[in-house]
Structure formats: C-alpha cells, structure tokens
Design brief:
Elements lengths: L6 H9 L3 E5 L8 H11 L5 E5 L5 E2 L2 E2 L13 E4 L3 H14 L3 E4 L10 H16 L2 E3 L5 E4 L6 E4 L7 E8 L2 H13 L4 E6 L8 H9 L6 E6 L5 H15 L3 E5 L13 H5 L2 H12 L2 E2 L3 H13 L7 E6 L2 H13 L3 E2 L4 H10 L10 E2 L6 H13 L6 E5 L7 H12 L6 E5 L6 H9 L8 H16 L16 H13 L4 E2 L1 H10 L7 E4 L2 H11 L3 E6 L12 E5 L2 H18 L7 E6 L5 E10 L3 E8 L4 H4 L2 E5 L4 H9 L4 H4 L10 H17 L5 E9 L6 E3 L2 E4 L1
Parallel strand pairs: 1-2, 1-5, 5-6, 6-7, 10-11, 10-12, 12-13, 13-14, 15-16, 15-17, 15-18, 18-19
Antiparallel strand pairs: 3-4, 8-9, 8-11, 20-30, 21-24, 22-23, 22-24, 25-26, 25-28, 26-27, 28-29, 28-30
C-alpha cells in the first residue's frame, strides 16, 4: 500500500488539478485513451491538458509529448491509459517527473488473477517508492462538476449535471449506467468516482474526502467487497455525526451460493450479507437493494429539507391513488396530519363542495393549478404538517405543466419537504421534466415516495448511538477464558467439550447451571443426588455437535434409578448412531426451570470481525430463522435493538398466560457475550441454544453451549 501521509493533499490534486497529463493518449475515436482526453477538453476543464503519446505529435490541437518526463511544466495529475503490460513503466516515469496524484484507468490487474496480481503489486511498489497515491486500476475514472475544475477524467459518454450527490463505485460498468439514468432524471453530482480495484485509494479514503467536500450533501456507494469493515463503520459514523451527510450504499453479493455449510446454528444462519446489514445499520449507513431505490432516497435528501416529523399531507386529484398513498404511508410508519381549523376553513372556502377536505385532500379530477396551489400552500402552512405528497393523474382537463410549475413555486416558499408523483408516462412526461429540473423529487409510484420520506425522517430524527463502553463489564476473567481455550487448541481440539465451554462462559459472568462430568451410571446417580433433582444428562464428545440428533440428551430426571437408566440409554444410542465418536463422558447438570428459549451465538466475519446473533431458540431456530445480528461489542441500547428486531420478542414481554421474561438479564448476557467475542479471537463460532430466560427478576441460564475453535 502506498503511503498515505500526504493523502488529502494528493487527492485534492486528483479533483482540482491545474495541469493534467493523459499518459497513453491516442487519436483513434472510440478508444478509451481518445475518449478520456476528448472528455477533458469537451467539459471545459479549467486547467492545462498535456497528451502523452510516443507515436503522435498532436492530439485535438494540443502538442503531444513522447514521455511525461519531457513536459517542462509541473503536472498535478497523471491519467494512465496505457495497457497493463506497460502501466508500471508509465507510473515509474510519473514518479521521476514528481507527479504525486494518479488515476490508473488500465485493466488487466488483480481482477484477472494470475500475472495480473503481480502487475498490481508492482505498481503498488512503485507508488510506495515515489510517495504516489492513485485511484484504480481498472476503473472508469473521476468526474468533478465543480465549476472551479470541470474535470471529466473518465471515458463516460457525457459530463453529468452539477449537483450535491457524491457517488463512489467499485464497478466502472455500473457507473456508465448510473450516469445515463441520472441524466434522464436531471440528477446532478458533486463528485463521481470509479475506484476499481482500490489497490491504493479505497472507499474509506474517498468517504473521508467527501466528508469535508462542501459541494457534497449526500454520499452514495456501490461496493462489491468490503475489506476493512470496522474502519468503514467508524468513518461512516464520523461523517454522520460531524456533518449530518447521509450515506446510502448498495453492497452486491447478497447470497452465499457455494459457501460451505457451517457446523453451528450461528454459522448456518449468519451469511455475510446479514452481517453487512447489521454493520451498516449500526454505522448509520442506509442500505439499498438497487439503483432506483438508492436514487429515490438520495434525491429526497439532496433536494428537499429533511422532515421534522412523520406528519404528512396528501394532495391528489383522484381518490384511488390517494388511498393507495395513504396505505403506503401508514405501512412505512408515517402519519396523516390532522389539519387545523384554519386550514379546514380555507379548504371549505376555496375547494369545490365535492372535494374531500380531510387528509388525503382530493381536489377532484377537473382540478387545475389554482386548486393545487390552494391545497398545497395551506397544507404546508399548517403547523401540524411537516411534509406533503402531491399526486396527479392525467385527465383531459388537467393542465399538467402549469400544475408542475405551481408545485415548484409553492415548494420554494416553505421549509418543508415536498415530493410529487405524476402517475402515468407519456402524458405527464413534460410535467415530470419540469419537476426534476427544479429539484422536486418525483416518483412514478406513491409507494416509493412514502418509503423515501420515511427513510429521510428516520435518518434525521433517529440519533446514531455510539457504543457506550462504560457499560462493558469489568468483572470478567479474560485471562482464564483464554487459558482454557489455548490449552484446548494445544491439545488439537476443534470443539471445546461442553464442560469446558461452560467454564469459559462462567469467566464472563454468563450464568451456567451446576454440573459435573461422569464416566459411569453409578457416578451419575451420586452426582445427581449431590446437585439436587431434577437433572439433565448430556453426552460429551468433540465429535458430536448436535447432541439431540444422536439421542445424547435426557432431561427432567427425578430419581437415582432414572439417572442410571438415562446414562445407559445415552451410551447405547450414541454407540449405535456414532460408533466412531470419541466419548469423554456424560455431563450431569442441574435442570433449569421452564422459561422462554432463545439462542445466542458468536461468529467472525472476514471484513467486520466478531458479531453476535440472537433469536428464537430451541429446535425451531433453523425453521423459523427469527434471528438478528450485531457487530460486537454492544451496549444496552444495541442489546435492546437486537432483541426487539425479532418477531418472537413480543413473547418476552408477556402474552396470553405467559409472564414477562427477565429481559434485563438477557440484555446483560448479550453484552457479556459481545465482550467474549472481542476478547477471545480464538473462538471461531459459539452457540448457546437454548438460553432459558426465566420470569422477570429471576435471571437466565445456559442450557446448552457449543464452542468451535
């Protein structure tokens, strides 16, 4: 990785260079080198352009230089478009010239594997040698619409409009589609960056740059891989906390096709995509499923004031769409505002008697611009309203363009968000164009409009909580836990025996019932008497992960005879089902009273590190998959969130004969488990299934634990 001590300074030269050298330029139209230099010149770049080409004397009226070192003047930015086979030599010459900021467009590096990986390593070594920072390789390039620069250092077809949205993408091909989509809707950008293989400058560096960019109001990202998940979370929190800029992201690779099956419940339920969801949520990043959803939400935040509440007014010229929008709004957690008496009086005076003056307001099918103006202005003036949706269906008497213009005029008078949905396509196209050119968020479907408003409201009004590390426990015995685990690893164990797993949990204050490992039926009966009935017997074997599958568990034993019989039964069945298993003995354990069964787990993600799982426990965990995830460590707020996200959480609060459970004890156990996950990286996966949560005030206990190393 090249040095980043001067990164901010070098990135500033990438976006605001006074001189640019296109290294590998050609005259051949339709080629990447030609189109890049053509785009720079066509965009009215506010600096000097130097084509570098060993074969040409002039390109587009500009003198060519055989090598970049032949240019007498200093160069702020070099754009390398030579093939990957010679890109390293071009970068070496940039170093000799003293160029510190580079964009490497060329493909044929890590993305093709084999020799490409070696080529990428070579350019990293050169960059490190000369203190160069670069974007790429294998990228579309960089665009800056700021009039002070007007740089289109890319091979995109057109320069986008100026705007307040910063866009980062790992995929160059996606960038071209996004630019075309945005152009059709008059969506502008502040900075538009394709960073390709992110061999040097990555999404975290670019996010930090956009954080301080006064031209950027909203940040969008498309990622194909997350390599530094924790750092990404930290920088996202920093941006949101310090600037209030929303970050919206698409992360591809949502499925885990081809992944090997994990041995634990946590492993089988927690695909990397679910962890990404949890991590983004914790960091305040708004995850989107596709480009349309991303831009639907982005324009709401970039164009209009952020909502102060979820109280909205709906203005429509058709009853059906008004009802559809109402349903969608309520589904998204919005509220229909109750109009003041003054607003109602104005509606009665100026709208037809046949109009519906309650929310949603129906101005009737023959409504022209004057009715829309009255309804919209008065609704936005109402103190009970903090946002408005305008719906239009094209009818024979509807003056679409005039209404669109009136909507624009009204929006300028109020500091409240206003979104529009002109339903249809051909007839309403000119009206939509007026709205989009004037930065009124437009949605083809009311459902998208409601979802975008709800996203903006939640972002603006839901505080991003930092983890309160003072809530972490200081009574844990980290050294003892690590010793138990390290001793097991030295002995070659892949799975901790349950009695050792229980000891690890105990060192972190996680409540475990009294128990003892035995190797005979007589010993089992004696221990059961000492512990006190009822007891549970469990097979102990590193080779057996799921004990119930081999009839290796017998519960609710009340006598010495039952205990002896259970011991013999377990040994018989385990020998029958798993004759190859090495058996350490049978665990005699105090039976936990009946309560609500939940599952807790730990796993590790390559990008985000340790995370915890919580959900409905027992035998149905993989049937209902009612689970939730968070990156560790967590505090009480996050512990509460992870519990409440599950559908089964309602049972914990008491329902139909079920007493409220000890949620406080459950939260404390989750926090302690998060600490264990962070402190003991030797733990690959951990399951507590079930954890029995007793009635409020009575705590919770581990009924079964499984730790993989």
């Amino acid at each position: 990785m090249s040095p980043k001590s001067h990164l901010r300074e070098h990135m500033e030269k990438i976006f605001y260079p006074e001189s640019v050298a296109v290294v590998g330029a050609t005259k051949v139209p339709g080629t990447v080198p030609h189109d890049i230099i053509h785009n720079i010149l066509k965009a009215d770049f506010q600096g000097i352009v130097y084509p570098v080409s060993p074969k040409e004397k002039f390109i587009a009226g500009a003198k060519c230089y055989k090598y970049i070192v032949d240019i007498d003047d200093p160069i702020d930015l070099a754009i390398i478009v030579f093939p990957s086979s010679v890109a390293d030599m071009a970068l070496e010459q940039c170093g000799n010239k003293g160029v510190k900021s580079v964009i490497i467009i060329s493909a044929g590096f890590r993305e093709v594997g084999g020799k490409g990986i070696e080529k990428e390593q070579k350019i990293l070594e050169i960059a490190d040698k000369y203190d160069i920072n670069f974007i790429g390789p294998n990228c579309l390039g960089v665009i800056n619409t700021d009039p002070k620069s007007m740089l289109n250092a890319s091979f995109a077809r057109k320069m986008p409009e100026e705007g307040t949205i910063g866009f980062l993408s790992q995929s160059g091909a996606l960038c071209t589609a996004v630019l075309d989509y945005a152009q059709a809707k008059h969506i502008g950008f502040s900075k538009f960056i394709s960073f390709g293989n992110k061999a040097d400058i990555n999404e975290i560096d670019l996010l930090r740059y956009l954080k301080d960019d006064p031209k950027t109001k909203v940040i969008l990202m498309y990622l194909e891989e997350v390599s530094k998940g924790r750092e990404l979370m930290d920088v996202a929190r920093e941006i949101i906390k310090d600037t209030g800029k929303p970050i919206l992201a698409i992360k591809s690779g949502r499925t885990d096709e081809g992944a090997s099956a994990a041995a634990s419940h946590t492993g089988s339920l927690a695909g990397s995509d679910l962890v990404t969801d949890a991590a983004f949520k914790q960091a305040g990043i708004i995850r989107c499923n596709n480009i349309e959803e991303m831009f639907n939400k982005a324009i709401a935040m970039a164009y209009q004031p952020m909502p102060k509440s979820n109280n909205i007014a709906i203005i429509t010229n058709a009853g059906g769409p008004g009802v559809l929008t109402t349903d969608a709004a309520i589904h998204e957690g919005l509220e229909l505002a109750k109009f003041s008496d003054q607003t109602t009086a104005v509606f009665k005076k100026y709208l037809p008697k046949t109009a519906n003056i309650k929310n949603p307001v129906d101005v009737i099918g023959d409504a022209r611009a004057d009715r829309y103006k009255v309804a919209l202005s008065q609704a936005l003036k109402d103190v009970n309203v903090d946002g408005a949706f305008v719906i239009l269906t094209p009818q024979s008497m509807t003056d679409i363009d005039t209404i669109a213009t009136e909507i624009v005029n009204v929006a300028e008078q109020y500091d409240k968000p206003l979104y529009a949905s002109f339903m249809g396509e051909a007839d309403v196209a000119s009206g939509i164009d007026i709205l989009q050119r004037n930065k009124i968020p437009h949605y083809s479907l009311p459902e998208s409009m409601c979802k975008s408003f709800a996203t903006a409201y939640k972002f603006e009004n839901h505080k991003l909580n930092e983890i309160d590390r003072t809530e972490l426990y200081n009574d844990v015995d980290k050294e003892s836990a690590r010793k138990i685990i390290d001793d097991a690893i030295k002995k070659g164990k892949k799975i901790l025996p349950e009695n050792e797993a229980d000891r690890v949990l105990e060192t972190y204050g996680i409540p475990v019932p009294e128990r003892k490992l035995v190797t005979s039926a007589e010993e089992a009966a004696k221990v059961a008497v000492d512990i006190g009935f009822p007891v549970v017997l469990k097979i102990m074997s590193e080779d057996i992960t799921h004990k119930f599958d081999v009839k290796g568990v017998v519960i609710d034993l009340h006598t010495e005879k039952e205990t002896k019989d259970a011991y013999e039964s377990i040994m018989h069945h385990v020998t029958k089902f798993r004759p190859d298993a090495k058996i350490d003995g049978i665990l005699v354990e105090k039976m936990v009273p009946k309560g609500q069964e939940v599952i807790l787990g730990i796993k590790r993600d390559p990008a985000f590190g340790p995370f915890i799982m919580y959900g409905l426990g027992g035998i149905f965990v993989e049937v209902f998959k009612d689970v939730s995830f968070r990156v560790a460590p967590i505090d009480k707020n996050v512990a509460s969130e992870i519990i409440e996200e599950t559908k089964s959480s309602k049972m914990l609060h008491g329902t139909r004969g079920i007493e409220p459970a000890d949620v406080d004890a459950l939260q404390n156990t989750l926090i302690r488990l998060g600490q264990l996950a962070v402190d003991c990286p030797q733990i690959k996966e951990l399951d507590i299934n079930p954890l029995i949560v007793l009635e409020k005030g009575k705590g919770c206990f581990v009924a079964d634990a499984n730790i993989m190393l």
